[in-house]
Recover the amino acids of this structure.
């Protein structure tokens, strides 16, 4: 509307300043230049619409790529989590095996020490018994002499 008002104003000013033939010629030139300007505006609007559509399409592509990348990363993290869980399970099993082996060794050494202690105790008990008998025999033999 403002464009039409501007066009009307230009034509009116042209008619006031020029002769009729010049005014008609000038008005025709003004109308033609406004038509060309309008045509250019329509082309610019169409170009802007195309750019807007391309931008929307690019945004949709980018969002799709970002979703795909997020999904790939999530899947990669899940695979890594499973691998780490398996590695942890294997390490735990290995550690349990090592603990069992060491417990077995310690039990074996403890059993061997207990057997040696038992043998030493039995030997010591026999020695004490022999010495007590000897002392008893000496005491009874000394009492018989006296």
């Amino acid at each position: 509307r403002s464009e039409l008002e501007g066009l009307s104003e230009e034509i009116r000013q042209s008619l006031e300043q020029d002769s009729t033939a010049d005014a008609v010629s000038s008005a025709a030139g003004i109308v033609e230049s406004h038509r060309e300007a309008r045509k250019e505006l329509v082309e610019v609007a169409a170009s802007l619409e195309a750019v807007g559509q391309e931008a929307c399409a690019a945004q949709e592509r980018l969002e799709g790529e970002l979703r795909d990348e997020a999904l790939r990363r999530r899947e990669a993290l899940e695979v890594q989590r499973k691998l780490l869980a398996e590695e942890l399970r294997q390490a735990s099993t290995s550690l349990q095996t090592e603990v069992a082996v060491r417990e077995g060794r310690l039990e074996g050494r403890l059993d061997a020490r207990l057997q040696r202690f038992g043998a030493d105790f039995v030997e010591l008990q026999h020695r004490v018994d022999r010495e007590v008998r000897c002392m008893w025999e000496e005491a009874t033999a000394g009492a018989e002499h006296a």
About this structure: The first helix runs from residue 2 to 17. Residues 45 and 51 are 10 Å apart (CA to CA). The two ends are 156 Å apart (CA to CA).
